[in-house]
Amino acid sequence: NEQEAREANGPNGRWRKLIFYRDISKYTSPRKTESESVSESHVRFATLDAMNLFLRSSIITLLSLLVLVATDQLDDVLTSSSGIFPSNSVKCGEKLSNTAFSSVFRSTNDVSNWRDVNIAYEPNAFEIDMIHNDDANPERSWSLRLGKGGQIMSLIVKPGESMANQGHHTAIWNDLVQQMVSVNGELNGVGGKNNFIHGAGVYANETEGTKPPFYSPKLALKCEGNDCTMINWGQQAHVPTPWDSPLLYYTRYHDCGDGIIQYDMAIYHFGQNASRFDYFNTPWTGVRTSIFPDLMTSDNKGKLQIAFPLQHFGAIQLLNLDQTGGFSTFAEKVGIPADYSPPFCVDKNNQTEWHDCNDKNVPENSSVPFSFDVKVANSSSHTDHWKNYGLAADSTVRMRWCDLSTTMPSGSWGWGSPAKKVVITNDDTGFSFESDYIIHYCWIGVWTYMSASVNATMINEQFPVGASISVAYRDKSGLPWNE
Fold it and tell me: CA dist 362 to 34, 357, 358, 359, 366, Å?
C-alpha cells in the first residue's frame, strides 16, 4: 500500500520510479496502466537514504532499499542458479549436511580475538551466519559469517578463527577477508588513482567520511536449504575516485557436508566496454598463520608442494592460477623440510647487502650464507614488542647482530613464529635459548628483536662481542599427512 509505505518512510522520504527492462520484467508481476509501455514494468521503491535511484542497462546507482513489491520474487530470480552458476560439483555429495542460518548478530570475539582498533565495527560488517554442526564428526563443524559485501568475514573451524584479525585501521573486513577483486590494468594507477574493485567494499577513511565502513551494496540474498547466495554491486576500493564501478559480484556458498564448503563466484560487467578488467585476484583470501601456519600449493601435475619458508606477500610464492594444479591448502602442522637452510645470503665482496639465497637473478657462486655474530657489548635490552605480538610480558629483547644497509625480513619467513619456535645458540660455547618469535631481523640493518626464554642480563653474559650465532628450528617434525 503506497500510503502506508509513505508513512513508514517518513515525511521526508522520496520516491523514484525504477524501470526493469524486458529481460527481468516478467518476474516482477507489476500492475500496469494503459499509459505504460508493454516493454517495461514499473516497480516502486522507498529509499532509506533519500537518494535518487535509476536503473538501466549501463548504470546502477543503488543504496539500502525498502522493497515494497515483489521482494521475494526478485530475490528468487536474481539468486537463481539457473544460468548463473553451474550445478554443484559431483564431489559435493551433501552427506551429513545440516545447515543453519542466523541473521541475529552475536560477536565472535571470544574466539576470533579481533584487534581493538576495529572491534567496534564488527556489527556494521555483519550480514548473516551460515553454520554446519556435524554430530558424527564435530571436528568438521564450522561457522561461516558473511559480511554485507558478500565477503567471508569470519570462518571458525576446530583450530579457531581462520580469517585475519583486522588489525589495519583502514581495512575493516574489506581486505583481509575472502572475496573477489577485479583490476583494470590499463587504468590502475593513472593519475595516482587505483582502479580495482573490491567485492567486500571500500577502504575506510575518516577524512572522506567512510567510517563506519561502506560495504558493496547488497542487491539480493537467498539462504535456504544448504545454499546461501548473494549479489553485490562491487565498489572501487579507494575513494574518492574518478573511476566507475560497473561490476556485479555473485557468490554462492554451499554446504556439501563432511566439513566441505563449495564456493562459487561469478562477475557480471554491466558497464561500458571501455572499462576493461583484465586481472582477477579471485578468490582473494588468506588465513591467520597462528591457526594455519603452513601453505601448500599444487604444481601443474596436481601434487602439493610446501611453500617454506612462508614469504612476504607479492614474493615468488604468489602464483597465477595457470602456474598451479588449481588448488592450494592451508594446514596446521606440516613438517619443515629436512634440507631447509636459512634464506639469507650476502655478496662475497659486499657483506652489507643481503639477498634471498634462492634469488635466481643473483649470479651463481657470487654470494655466501649470512652468519650472525654479536657486534656490540651490552646489546640486549627489554622492549615492549611483546604487547603487540601476543607474547609473554617482558619477554622481548633486542640484540645487535648485523651491520647491514637494510632490514632483513621478519619471522614471517619461517624463522620463528608462535607456531614454530627456534633455538638461538652461541656456536663457541654451546649455550642456547628459545625464541617463540623473531619479530625483526636486523632492523634498520642493525637490531634484531625477538622473544626470549631468558632475560637480557643472561643473554649479555652468554653472548660476548664476537660470539658466532646460529638459529635453527627446535622441531622440524609435523603431523602425518592423513591428519
Answer: 77, 8, 9, 6, 7
Please tell me the distance from the alpha carbon of residue 70 to that of residue 74, in angstroms, as a whole number. Answer: 6
Alpha-helical (H) ranges within 257-340 are none
| Tens-digit pLDDT profile for residues 46-102 | 222 222 333 332 233 333 333 333 456 667 766 665 568 878 888 887 665 689 999
Please say whether the dihedral angle defined by the alpha carbons of residues 364, 369, 370 and 374, taken in this order, is positive or negative.
Answer: negative
Residue 449 in grid coordinates:
628483536
What is residue 399's three-state secondary structure? strand
Reported as type and span, the H/E element at residue 127 is: strand 126-132
* Whether the Cβ atoms of residue 296 and residue 304 lie closer than 8 Å to each other: yes
Nearest to 306 by CA among 332, 338, 283, 329: 329
Q: Do the strands 126-132 and 60-61 form a parallel or antiparallel pair, or are they unpaired?
A: unpaired
Report the relative pairing of strands 328-331 and 447-451 from DSSP bridges.
unpaired
Give SS3 for 430. coil
Q: What is the DSSP letter of 455?
A: -
The amino acid at 57: S
Give the count of beta carbons closer than 10 Å to the beta carbon of residue 479. Answer: 11
Print burial letters for 59-89: b (CB count within 10 Å at least 16), e (below 16). Answer: ebebeebeebebeeebbebbbeeeeebeebe
**Tens digits of residue pLDDT in 323-367:** 889 888 888 888 877 767 667 888 887 778 887 776 777 887 888
**Dist CA 319 CA 328 (whole Å):** 10
Which residues in 34-119 belong to E strands, given as ranges?
Answer: 41-47, 54-55, 60-61, 65-67, 99-102
As given in the structure block, the three cell numbers for residue 90 are: 559431483
Assess contact for 400 and 464: CB atoms under 8 A: no
| 3 state SS of 204 | coil
Q: Check residue 138 and report its DSSP letter.
A: G
Which position has the grid cell 494503459? 34
CB 297 within 8 A of CB 207: no
What is the per-residue DSSP string for 215-271? Answer: BPPEEEEEEETTEEEEEEE-EESSSS-SS---EEEEEEEEEEETTEEEEEEEEEE-S
Which residue in the block uniquely carries the three cell numbers 637473478? 361
Distance CA 398, CA 439 (A): 10
